[in-house]
Amino acid sequence: MNFLSRRARAIAPYTAGEQPADRKYIKLNTNENPYPPSPRVQEVLRAFDAGTLRLYPRPDADGLRAAIARAEGVEEKNVFCGNGSDEVLALSFPAFFDEGGTACFADLTYSFYEVFAAFFGVKTHIVPLKADFSFDLAAMKNADCAGYYLCNPNAPTGIALPLSAVENFVASVKDRIVIADEAYMDFFGESAVPLTKKYKNLLVVKTFSKSYSLAGIRCGYAVGDEALISGLFRMKDCFNSYPVDAVAQAVCTAAVEDRDYREQTAALVKAERTRLREELLALGFTVPPSGANFLFAGRAKKSGGELYRALKEEGVLVRYWEKPILSDFLRITVGTPEQNGVLIEKLKKILQ
Ligand code: PMP
Fold first, then answer.
1. Alpha carbon of 30 to ligand 1 centroid (Å)
2. Most buried residue among 180, 310, 311, 339 by CB atoms closer than 10 A?
3. 110: Cβ below 6 Å to ligand 1?
4. Cα dihedral: 17, 22, 28, 29 (round 10)
């Protein structure tokens, strides 16, 4: 007897990057921030009264949403918070797409979109990237669909669209929703959040996992017109009343209020991104310019899989794929100068 539903048997789930415990690695595989979160986060955790955990957290995370609204220059009613931006993105499918409706995105983009679409019975219109790995916005515009997922900067390529291109696209498809996944935007700096006041069809999704160094806390948010935000709340309240726990609400409030710290650590990552890219180019890799905290490096003398395995032996973890269009490439998270130094040294040895 198989007790699994047809859906549970048939679906191909997303595979998260590995978090191995067998030894200590230099972890450059899941785009975590190499720097700790704001010192204010540590203060909040130290002062946190465990007695308050007896109570449920605020179901709509209203204190945190107010802090995010202040930081983003919008109102609290324009902000929705979830358990990681993955959950916010997941809820966006049933909120904005009918079963049997169509969502459009690129062939090479955050691979969770395809899993969410399958899970919620949404069809997909997949548009190949151009030869230089950039989005083919003209082809996307012509797609017969109810809306778009635009990962900016894109993953795993790192390529960023300038704000003007995002605005032109959003304006040109104004009866369709555009969900801009800005998980890595703080490493580029042209967020579309200000455009959400002008365009009712734009939802911007962000996370505390990357530029705020809080991947372990699980919190992400969306900014958009009140009507879009209310759709996300309706779906949340069909699924989990309290997606953001009390510790996460307190920690993320402190983090979002420390803009200086976020900008300082992002600046360190960006400086290292430039240096690491130059080193990789010098080793013969093709590396598109990245607006994110990772580099997409490929077409060297060895395949992505071979390089991944050799680096793992040497104690350095990176991400690779079996998929044919990606098999030449590695995705390497930008680490600290020391970590990147070790990576380059090991790569030199392996490629010799
Ligand atoms: N969007 C993109 C493009 C990502 O790479 C990730 C991280 N895997 C996420 C969203 C989700 O991040 P989180 O759930 O940690 O907020």
1. 9
2. 180
3. yes
4. -10
